[in-house]
Amino acid sequence: MGNFQSHMVELDTETIVEGGVTFVQATVTNTRGTSQAVRLENRLEGPPWPPRRAGIETPEWDGDYWEGTVQPGERRGLGYASPAEPIDQPLTVVDVRRVTSADRRDTSAVLRDLDGWRPPRALLADRR
User: Fold this and answer.
1) What is the pLDDT of residues 14-73, one digit of tens each?
2) pLDDT tens column, 1-11
3) How far, in Å, are 35, 87, 89, 91, 120 from residue 9 at the CA level?
4) Under a CB-based contact definition with an 8 Å cutoff, are residues 12 and 26 in contact?
5) Whether the Cβ atoms of residue 21 and residue 82 lie closer than 8 Å to each other
6) CA distances for 83 relative to 35, 77, 78, 101, angstroms
7) What is the DSSP string of the chain?
8) CA-CA to 14 of 20 to 30 Å: which in 21, 41, 72, 110?
9) Is the pLDDT score of 93 beyond 70?
10) What is the pLDDT at residue 24?
11) How far is CA 64 from the centre of its chain?
12) So which domain of life are we looking at (predicted)?
């Protein structure tokens, strides 16, 4: 089990190995009074296998990196698997910064960006 503390966030990790796969469980705690954008890096000597929802990798993951927002005084859990051997500190904090208004997008802005999107025709084809 690993533990990281800074003046902004705490990172606790635990690894479990089953069937040759290392499972990493982590908790990020925001010790500040403001929202923090946190970026973590996988340190295992193998690729991370992030969780998937409906076959799609969760959006917080990009390669070896996880990035998410942790609200003031809150904690956020995350996990992933890897074919690599476990190590004491499988994740490391690479960046922590205060969330600014530029980081926040309102719902209407997100919907405007989706306005031109349409599903592929093949998806809508009648398969009787």
Assistant:
1) 999 999 999 999 999 999 999 999 999 999 999 999 999 888 888 999 999 999 999 999
2) 565 556 689 99
3) 11, 21, 16, 13, 42
4) yes
5) yes
6) 33, 21, 18, 39
7) -EEEE-SSEEEEEEEEEETTEEEEEEEEEE-SSS-EEEEEEE-SSS--B--EETTEE-TTEETTEEEEEE-TT-EEEEEEEESSPP-S-SEEEEEEEE--GGG---HHHHHHHHTT----HHHHS---
8) 72
9) yes
10) 98
11) 10
12) Archaea
Give the distance, in angstroms, between the CA of residue 112 and the centroid of all CA atoms in the same chain. 25
Distance, in Å, from the CA atom of 40 to the CA atom of 43, rounded to the nearest integer, reads: 9
Q: Which two tokens stand for residue 100?
A: 């600014």
